Amino acid sequence: MVSEGAFHGGLPGGVGVSGLSVYDWPAADGVCGGTPHTHLVCSEAYVVTGGRGAVQTLTASRCEVTPLAPGTVAWFTPGTVHRLVNEGGLRITVLMQNSGLPEAGDAVLTLPPRHLADPETYAAATTIPADAPEAEQERIARARRDLALEGYRELRAGGPEALAAFHRAAAALVRPRLDEWRDRWRRGAAAAAAATGHQLDRLSEGDASHLAEAAVRAEQPSVRGRFGMCGRLDVYRS
Q1: 8 A C-beta contact, residue 98 and residue 192
Q2: In this predicted model, what pLDDT tens digit does every residue of 3-61 receive, in sequence order?
């Protein structure tokens, strides 16, 4: 959202938020859960609101498993490959940098290298048509999850060199969209930070007039139950 008057009109700090019910679909390894992927410019946080599970993460330094239970807050920085595991009714509120950019393009699934060659090849393996019947959307979501798990296993076995190659391929895939992302950042997180700077400047001069512009906002999800990377999403406008 664009800054309005003395305030940024979006959520605090220009974050995005969604409600997530993690997939309970079993994979080939017997583990239920979502699609492993990474973000290139956004950190992401999980606030666990129900159920139990874990998040498997892969970075250049290590593989980790972080347990998730109600009350847990877990977060990770760009470049972290992550896979959500559902051990029973796992529900999460997801907080995302840059006005929800991870759900608007800043995400690359860990597909095998042959699917990362160019944006068209990648899109063919990952796109879920919005107008497809729900059963077809679920079939595609499960197929791309399983394909990403194939690549994820290769990354875990391949060590830092394999992860670095994946990062390079991911960066090449998203390059055509960077101007769009930069604009989203300017209108969101950068505008929110600038608004705080202006408020501090006013207060340092003894001017509290911006407080008269205070406002309250609330909204319901704009979309409920969308097939996401990790589960069914309740999506809020960012």
Answers
A1: no
A2: 345 788 889 999 999 999 999 999 999 999 999 999 999 999 999 999 999 999 999 99
Instruction: Name the residue among 194, 112, 118 with its Cα closest to residue 149.
Output: 112
Can you list the positions of beta strands (E) in the chain?
Answer: 3-4, 7-8, 16-22, 37-38, 44-58, 63-68, 73-76, 81-96, 108-109, 223-227, 231-235
Phi, psi torsion values for 81, nearest 5 degrees: -75, 130
Q: Is the pTM for the entire model greater than 0.90?
A: yes
* Residue in 186, 185, 152, 199 with CA at minimum distance from that of residue 36: 152
Q: What's the DSSP call for residue 4?
A: E
Contacts of 236 (CB under 8 A, 6+ apart): 16, 17, 18, 100, 219, 221, 222
Q: Which amino acid is at 234?
A: D
Residues 6+ apart with CB under 8 A from 92: 19, 20, 22, 46, 47, 48, 49, 68, 84
